[in-house]
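For the sake of clarity, the format in which proteins appear in this thesis is described at this point. The fold follows as a row of integers, each naming the local backbone shape at the matching residue. One such record is shown here in full, so that the layout can be seen directly:
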Amino acid sequence: MRLAVFTHVIHKKYKDDYYAYSPYVREINLWIKNADKVDILAPLIEDHTPEKELKYIHRDLNFHSLPAFNLLSFSTVFKSIFIIPVIFLKVILAMRQADHFHIRCPGNIGLIACIAQVFFPQKPKSVKYAGNWDHKANQPWTYNLQKWILKNRILSNNIKVLVYGNWGSPNRNIQPFYTASFSEKDKAETLKDYSFPFEFIYVGNLVRGKGVFQCIDLVEEIKNMGFPCHLKIFGDGMLKDELEEYILKKDLCETVSLMGRKDINDLKVAYKAAHFVILLSKSEGWPKALAEGMWYGAIPISTRVSCVPWMLGNGKRGLLIDGENISLDVTLNKIKYLLRHPETMREMSRNSINWAQRFTLKKFERDIKKFL
């Protein structure tokens, strides 16, 4: 089988290998191991030494470089007028040669591939929609266009669209899906002692929209209610300096620690030690940090975005917070009740473990194979 992969993810070439964002490549390697020949169509940065990226592993892989573009300003839209036809032609040619298409959405390359696949109704296709599938969410028009094309059974035939969470859709194109991080050998009974001080962790990029400042504010409020607690923030990004100043200004150096970016082994240790994993993001696809924390029994506290309510069993496996009500008394009252009832916390922790540990890498690989 010849498999063509279409993605907006920026790649690097180092010597004779191609590298990209580690979690993405880790998953794509599971897709391409089932193929005899692989074509990757994506943007490329030539001759850059990879830092924490991973490389593709396949004996017969061809990379086809596509120019990156966006539609965020008049100048970039004007430039895209000349770039898009070139990309579209390359995508069409790759689809003609391929036995199966795998499209990564949402993204600009994914949008072009979504349009191009319409001309190949008989060929089997899979799409990984790694964003928020909630039709009520406020999202860019290009994202909504991709969703509309993929759901349309006239335009999209012989296709399986893998979306995060179960949205109860009767559309046969749409398949609820997930992402896995750990294997069977990582399973271990994690018995947490829900007593003071409570350990909170945030894992993710330090960028706007992820609610990192709100995480700090929330833990500060919990501390002010008389509950000894500590927040460890794992990750790196453009807000690092601002966060350092914010923590210093609020005199929270003893309460909040910036840990930097850590590898998965360090994160496993942190998840095992944590009582709570917290994410107050405005938008998510599959919030990997929540799922990983739940695997090790950390109770998730998250905004009600994307598939999070489904992940948290609508409150049976964690605390759901309305995005605009993070600082309201109702949120603090929920947390206060939980912190005063250790048995309730243990039950939530057990529920989190039982749910998260269903999604192993072996099951993930087996389920991917079904769509090829």
